[in-house]
Design goal:
The protein is built from three helices and six strands, in the order E-H-H-E-E-E-H-E-E. The chain has a six-stranded mixed β-sheet, with helices on both faces. A hairpin with a 3-residue loop joins strand 3 and strand 4. Helix 1 packs across helix 2.
């Protein structure tokens, strides 16, 4: 797993997509700031991402299998362009344990790239995770 900064995202796997996701997140953060429910940010992100020309799905089920038997499932907040899973949070500040949640989503789907976005008290914090 690698964590990547915002510089030159276009050179990374699905970098153009994650660049647009970040732009959408910053636009939503600028509009609302901190304090709304996660669902408000999620619905707003869908609008912003679509306006940027990308396909996005909300509340995408992720089935988890063991020996070809489904043993559970997760729900991803957003799945963008069938290549990037986005998990949204509304914590006062970034909490590193949320990375584990996103990594589980990536492992269960074999999707390579995920974005963790926290619409925090001071700013929109993010981590780009690559499996």
């Amino acid at each position: 797993m690698a964590k990547e900064g915002s510089r030159s995202l276009s050179i990374f796997l699905h970098g153009e997509i994650t660049k647009e996701i970040l732009g959408a997140a910053f636009a939503v953060q600028k509009e609302f700031g901190y304090g709304f429910l996660e669902k408000i940010y999620e619905n707003s992100m869908v609008i912003e991402i679509q306006e940027r020309g990308l396909q996005v799905r909300q509340q995408v089920p992720i089935d988890v299998f063991y020996k070809n038997i489904m043993v559970g499932h997760y729900i991803a907040d957003l799945f963008v362009a069938d290549n990037v899973i986005v998990e949204l949070k509304t914590e006062r500040a970034y909490i590193s344990r949320h990375e584990a949640q996103l990594l589980h989503y990536l492992r269960a789907t074999r999707v390579k790239v995920g974005m963790l976005l926290n619409f925090g008290e001071l700013k929109c914090e993010y981590k780009r995770l690559v499996l």
